[in-house]
Amino acid sequence: MNQNEQYYYVERKGFTTEAKAYLTPLRPYLLVISTLFLLATAAGYVSAYFNPDIIDELMGQFEETYGWIADESPIMIMLFIFANNTINSFIAMLLGTFFGIWPVIFILVNGYFIGVVVFSSVQEYGILVVLFALLPHGIIELPAIFISASMGLRLGVLAFQKIFKIKEEEIRFKYELFSAIRFFVTVIVPLLFIAAIIETFITTTILYILTS
């Protein structure tokens, strides 16, 4: 069994064991993605501080694209949030096969937007309200998105290594891709579903209580 197989071959000892075995080689990629997200969030926050007009610009674009969802029922809002996060995360993972470029762009864009939104929300409601609004679903949603992007980044690195024959051992790219999709379906999708439920029914309740 080569090194590549050792990373991903897991005997049927339980779901937790299998998930941990898959996540182990993702750690360096997860660190890169998390760092990029934090830097992008900081950049968005600072940009909004020095150029407040960017808040109206970005929020206007957001309202134009997603404003219609506010008139829907809570169930529809929850399903939309779940579908939107799942589709975008899956695309970030899948398009990562093209040398890992898209997951990086995906994380940077989202991090920047969140930074702008956080600055605007802190100015209007205060830091405590923002924290209470983000933490309930964010502690589930963000790791799921980070892992998805990390999988895409790793697939991109593996594709690069395979094409240019950088590593001597055989890189079973199709197997790696199948493993990533399987992990996404069995782990990431349920996490995003739980996060969508929390964001729709718990986060909104917390915001209503804190801002009323």
Note down, in words, how this protein is organized.
The chain is mainly α and 212 residues long. The protein has one domain (25-211). Helix content is 83%, strand content 0%. It has helices spanning 3-8, 15-23, 27-50, 53-66, 74-94, 101-125, 127-163, 173-211. The longest helix has 39 residues, at 173-211.
Distance separating the two termini: 61 Å
Determine Rg (CA atoms, Å).
19 Å
Largest sheet: none
- Count of beta strands: 0
Q: How many distinct helices?
A: 8
Give the SSE order as H and E letters: HHHHHHHH
Number of domains: 1
| Assembly state | single chain
Low-confidence stretches at least 5 residues in length (pLDDT < 50)? Answer: 5-12
Q: What portion of the residues fall into strands of 2 or more residues? A: under 5%
* Secondary-structure content class: mainly alpha
Could you estimate the helical fraction of the residues in percent?
A: over 70%
Shape, principal axes of CA atoms: globular
Give average pLDDT, whole number: 89
